[in-house]
Amino acid sequence: MNINKYLASAAALFLSFAAVSCSDDNSSDEPAAKTHIYLATADGTTSISEDSDQEVTITVDLSAAAAETLTLDFQLTGDGADALALEGNPVTIAKGATTGSFIIKSKQGGTLTAAASATLAINGLDAAKYDLKETVTITVLPTVSLADLTEEQKAMLDHYASELGMDLYPWLGNVALTGTIEFPGSGTREPFVAPATINLNGRTLFSLSAEATDDTPALDMAANPMGMSEYLHKSFRQLTVEDKEYFDNEDADYSLRLMALLNWTESSTETFNVTLPGLKITDFDPATKKAAVEFVVEGDNYVLGTDGTPVHDDINDFDLTYDFSSDRVAFAYTYSAWDRMLALIESRNPDALELMSSTLSHPAQYLGISSVGSDDWEIDEEEDGVRDLYTAPKGEIDFAAGTMTFEFPFDHADQYGYSRVKVVYTLAK
What is the pTM of this model? Predict the structure, then answer.
């Protein structure tokens, strides 16, 4: 493998962590181990259209058999909570059993004007015996009508259809997807040690991009891009506030100071959103009705201030970047704990200015940290003992078949090598 790539990744992962000490104290008065509760979607679906009758099954798994009959009363939190309903809740797990399930569906209220998210929590959980180890966040996509388009947008879409031969009207709105993330494993934290195949299902909200021109159509994935919103949010939390080994640990330094400065914890109420803007449609072939979809952005991944210019580190005299990649899949994140940190940086708060060169509360410092247009990892499967999952990024839209396909590499701060992401969008017949 590329040893420089490994060292750079390790630096990105551990820069904000101080050494963590281990204790050999095996005192017999240690409390009994808690039973962990894991939530997941049965088929990988993590988004629901507000106007849909779609049902998403949530599976409930215990790390140990219930010592007594267990009743779990689930609730939804977040700005999308009021748009969803739970069926089969509360969930009862019989003594000796380990599994249960319930259903989430839309209330079909038609109240949303933008995508919203809702995260599952448990009311009245006995914290001495149980903890919610893994939860699920559902993205609720608003009902979209072509009547919402401006006259200028309609004129541009009509131009694409008549002059370029590309009808993009069917691609505006919530489009169904299926896909997978092949994850190589070999991370240091428990969630990232084992290889895994993560299923992607649900829908993405597409809109006409502000980057569209008369000659080059462009779309935005305005919500749940590539079906990965929940995966990205979950991974980010597991790399930061849910990580009790390195990040949220009493012996950590920078990250612990940052959490205290921002009042940012595993239980703090935060908002997370991700989009993928500016998918350019090029090289249309009138004979096959196929075109390329360009979604990789080149250049330094600068940390931008509220004025859109790079944040400068005066202490070390350089413009901050989230990573050292030369190109990337340009997922655009908004996160409330980062909003608080950026406000402190721009108000010249001395603690924020000191911490920003070491650790940030922005998802982009932890997600998608390596270049995708070239193989930075250079995995040798025989030597490294992990799969080489690098694949050149590519996207294609087939207007005749009503499909859009993507394949690309992706990594985060605790894995060895790239993941391989494959996604297929299919228009409803």
Answer: 0.88
